[in-house]
Design a protein that fits this description.
Elements: H1 7-15, H2 33-40, H3 43-53, E1 81-84, H4 93-98, H5 128-140, H6 150-175, H7 198-215, H8 232-247, H9 272-287, H10 299-306, E2 319-323, E3 327-328, H11 330-334, E4 346-349, H12 351-356, H13 370-374, H14 382-385, E5 388-389, E6 394-398, E7 401-405, E8 426-427, E9 445-446, E10 449-453, H15 454-469, H16 484-495, H17 500-507, H18 513-527, H19 534-540, E11 550-559, E12 562-573, H20 587-592
C-alpha cells in the first residue's frame, strides 16, 4: 500500500488516547467527539486516517521481508528453511517455533514490539489494533462534508470495510474462530466477548469484502494517489483466499480431533464450499485487470524480475495488494551469505524444498538417479535458479564483487563462520544483489511485498475448482472461463516449464482429480516459496503431522576436485504437534476475558 506522511494524523490520535484503555485491543482508537469532528469533517485528514489504517498489515513490521523476532522469515518455522543468525544465544521466533518452544505466555512473534506485552500478532500487524482503526473510520466517515464527491466517500468507507475484513482474516488464519469486533467500543462498553465460530468468522469476513466491493469504484485505479489502495479486485481475491481456507480439510470437517469444535471447524464436510471459493477466484479472473508478469521469454528472468522490477515505468500487473516501498537493502542485509563482510546467513532453504524443484522437462528430481545425483543443480525448474543460491552458482555481479561463484562445500568460502548456512543453500528470491551491496553498506532496490498477486488467484482457483469438479471443471457463466489445468498452465508457461499435460505425459502418469491435487500442492510449494503461504498451506491441508520432523541439508565434500553430495544430513529438528495447527490464544487475553476459550491442547 502506498504510504503518505502521517505525522499529523498520528498527533491527532495520540492526543486523544485514554490511558486505561490503551492496552485493550477491543477499544476503539480513542478519539473524543471533538477530535473525531476534527479528523473526519475534513476530507484530507479523513483520508490520512485511512492511510494510517493500512499500516497495520504484517508487512509494516519492517522494511525487510524477515518480519519475525530475530530477523527471521516464517519460512524458517516450517519445512522451507532453517534460520541462521549471528547471535546463537537468542534464538529467533522461527527457531523457537521449530523447537516447539512457544506457547500462550511466550508469544513474541514480530521483530518490532507490539507495545502490548508481546502477545504475538493478536494486537499489532494483522490484529485488533488494525480492526479498531477500521471500526473508527466506519463509525465517523459519515461526518465527511457534503462537498466531498460520493465516489470519494464511498471509496474511503469501502477501504475501511476491506481493512476490517482483512484484519479479521489475519486473525482467523492463526486462531480459527475469533471474537468478531464490528464496532468501535467505548470505555464504558463490556468487552468480555466470546470467540465466534469458524462459520460466523468466515461469513463476517466475506460480508466485509462484499460491502467493500459495493462501495469501491467499478474500474481499476489509474491515478498515482489511488494506485495501491484496496480495489474490487483485492476484495474478490481475498474473499477467494478465505473461502479456500474454509473449504480446506482443517476447517471443512470435524476438526483436528474429530470433536466438531465450532471454534476450529464447521463440524461437517460440504463440497459446495469449494465451489464458492472457485467462484470468488473466477470473479478476479473475469475482471481482466491482472496478468502474470513477464519480461520476455526467459522463465528464470521472468520469475526473478517479478520481485525486482519496480519503480518508475514498471509494468507489473500481477500485483493485487501489498506493501509498496521505496528503495532499501534491508532484505538483502538480513539474508546476506557467509563469505562476505557483514554477512548474516538468514533464511537457508532446506534440502526438501530444493529437491521439490522439478527437472526442466517436468519430471521429478531423484537422488537415486546416478546422472541427476552427480550434477543435482543442472536442468532444473527455472524458478530454482531465481530462488536458491547453491554450490557452484555463478553471478556476473553479486553485491560488491564481480564474476562470483559460490562455494558451499565443506571448507568453502561460503561455508565457514558463524553465519554459514547449515543446509548448503542461501536465499536468492526477492534479492537484488546487482543493486544492493550489504558488504559495502551501499546501494538499494525497490522491494514490494505482494501479499496478494495474480498467480495466487490462479492457484487458488485451480485448487478449489479441481476439488469441486475435477480437472475439467469451469465456473458457469464466467466471462473468461478456464479449467484448473488451464490456470496452472499460465503459471508454468511464465516460468518456462512444460504445461500440465506434457508434464504428466513425461512422468508416465494420467491426470485425475487426485493426481492433479498433488500436482497443485507441489506447484503452490514452488511458485509461492518464501511468501508466507507454505506455513498455512500444510496446516489447512492437515499435513504437518506427516512432514519430516527435521530439516535436511546437503553436506558437500570435494574429492579430487569433484563434489560429493550427502543430501540426508539433519541440520535442525522440527516439532510439529497436533496443537500446532492453530496458534495459542495469548494467556493475557484468557486472563482478562472470562469468556475467551483457549485453542485445543494449548
Amino acid at each position: 500500500m502506498k504510504k503518505y506522511n502521517l505525522h499529523y494524523i498520528a498527533a491527532i490520535i495520540v492526543s486523544g488516547i485514554l490511558g486505561s484503555c490503551a492496552d485493550d485491543p477491543f477499544y476503539a482508537v480513542p478519539i473524543e467527539f471533538n477530535s473525531a469532528m476534527t479528523v473526519f469533517s475534513d476530507s484530507t485528514r479523513a483520508e490520512y486516517f485511512i492511510n494510517n489504517a493500512y499500516t497495520e498489515q504484517p508487512s509494516d513490521v519492517a522494511s525487510s521481508f524477515n518480519w519475525l523476532a530475530g530477523n527471521a522469515m516464517l519460512a524458517s518455522a516450517c519445512d522451507e528453511a532453517m534460520h541462521v543468525q549471528k547471535n546463537k544465544t537468542s534464538p529467533s521466533t522461527a527457531t523457537k517455533m521449530s523447537a516447539g518452544n512457544w506457547g500462550p505466555s511466550n508469544m513474541q512473534f514480530y521483530r518490532s514490539s507490539d507495545g502490548a506485552g508481546e502477545i504475538g500478532s493478536w494486537m499489532k500487524w494483522g490484529g485488533y489494533h488494525g480492526v479498531r482503526k477500521a471500526n473508527t473510520a466506519i463509525k465517523y466517515l459519515d461526518l465527511l462534508p457534503a462537498t466531498c464527491s460520493q465516489r470519494f466517500k464511498n471509496r474511503l468507507k469501502g477501504e475501511a470495510h476491506f481493512l476490517r475484513g482483512l484484519q479479521h482474516f489475519h486473525l482467523f488464519q492463526k486462531w480459527g474462530g475469533i471474537p468478531i469486533v464490528d464496532k468501535a467500543f467505548e470505555a464504558s462498553d463490556d468487552v468480555q466477548i466470546p470467540r465466534n465460530t469458524v462459520e460466523e468468522t468466515v461469513n463476517f469476513i466475506c460480508n466485509e469484502f462484499d460491502q467493500a466491493i459495493e462501495l469501491l469504484p467499478e474500474d481499476p485505479y489509474v491515478d498515482s494517489w489511488e494506485i495501491g489502495r484496496a480495489d474490487r479486485g483485492a476484495c474478490y481475491a481475498y474473499k477467494a483466499r478465505v473461502l479456500l481456507y474454509a473449504a480446506s480439510k482443517l476447517y471443512n470437517g470435524s476438526g483436528i480431533d474429530g470433536s466438531g469444535n465450532p471454534l476450529i471447524c464447521y463440524g461437517n464436510y460440504d463440497a459446495n464450499r469449494w465451489k464458492l471459493a472457485a467462484e470468488a477466484a473466477q470473479k478476479v479472473i473475469d475482471l481482466n485487470w491482472y496478468t502474470l508478469f513477464t519480461n520476455g521469454t526467459n522463465g528464470q528472468e521472468n520469475y526473478k524480475k517479478l520481485f525486482n522490477e519496480w519503480g518508475s515505468g514498471h509494468n507489473n500487473h500481477e500485483f493485487i495488494f501489498g506493501r509498496i516501498r521505496g528503495t532499501n537493502r534491508d532484505t538483502e542485509n538480513d539474508n546476506f551469505p557467509a563469505g562476505f563482510t557483514n554477512s548474516t546467513g538468514g533464511t537457508c532453504p532446506s534440502q526438501d524444498l530444493v529437491d521439490a524443484y522439478e527437472m526442466s522437462d517436468g519430471t521429478l528430481f531423484n537422488w537415486n538417479d546416478p546422472e541427476k545425483a552427480a550434477n543435482p543443480y543442472a536442468n532444473r525448474d527455472p524458478r530454482f535458479y531465481a530462488s536458491i543460491i547453491y554450490n557452484g552458482a555463478h553471478y556476473s555481479k553479486f553485491a560488491n564483487t564481480s564474476n562470483y561463484t559460490f562455494q558451499t562445500y565443506t571448507g568453502g568460502k561460503n561455508a565457514t563462520g558463524n553465519t554459514a548456512t547449515e543446509t548448503s543453500y542461501y536465499l536468492y528470491k526477492f534479492m537484488d544483489y546487482e543493486k544492493c551491496k550489504p558488504d559495502a553498506k551501499s546501494g538499494g532496490a525497490y522491494h514490494v511485498w505482494m501479499d496478494m498477486r495474480y498467480a495466487e488467484v490462479l492457484l487458488n482457483y485451480a485448487e478449489a475448482a479441481n476439488e469441486y469438479g475435477g480437472p475439467d471443471f469451469v465456473v458457469g457463466g464466467a466471462s473468461r472461463p478456464m479449467t484448473p489445468i488451464e490456470a496452472l498452465n499460465q503459471i508454468r508457461q511464465r516460468s518456462g516449464m512444460p504445461d500440465v499435460e506434457t508434464t504428466f505425459r513425461n512422468r508416465g502418469k494420467s491426470i485425475s482429480k487426485e493426481s492433479l491435487r498433488e500436482f497443485i500442492y507441489h506447484e503452490r510449494q514452488i511458485e509461492m516459496a518464501f511468501e508466507n503461504q507454505r506455513y498455512y498451506d500444510v496446516r489447512r491441508w492437515m499435513l504437518i503431522e506427516s512432514l519430516p520432523q527435521y530439516i535436511r541439508g546437503c553436506r558437500i565434500t570435494m574429492e579430487n576436485g569433484i563434489p560429493v553430495y550427502d543430501p540426508n544430513v539433519i541440520v535442525e529438528n522440527k516439532i510439529f504437534e497436533r496443537k500446532h495447527y492453530f496458534f495459542p490464544i495469548p494467556q493475557v487475553e484468557i486472563n482478562r476475558n472470562i469468556q475467551m476459550v483457549q485453542n485445543p491442547e494449548w
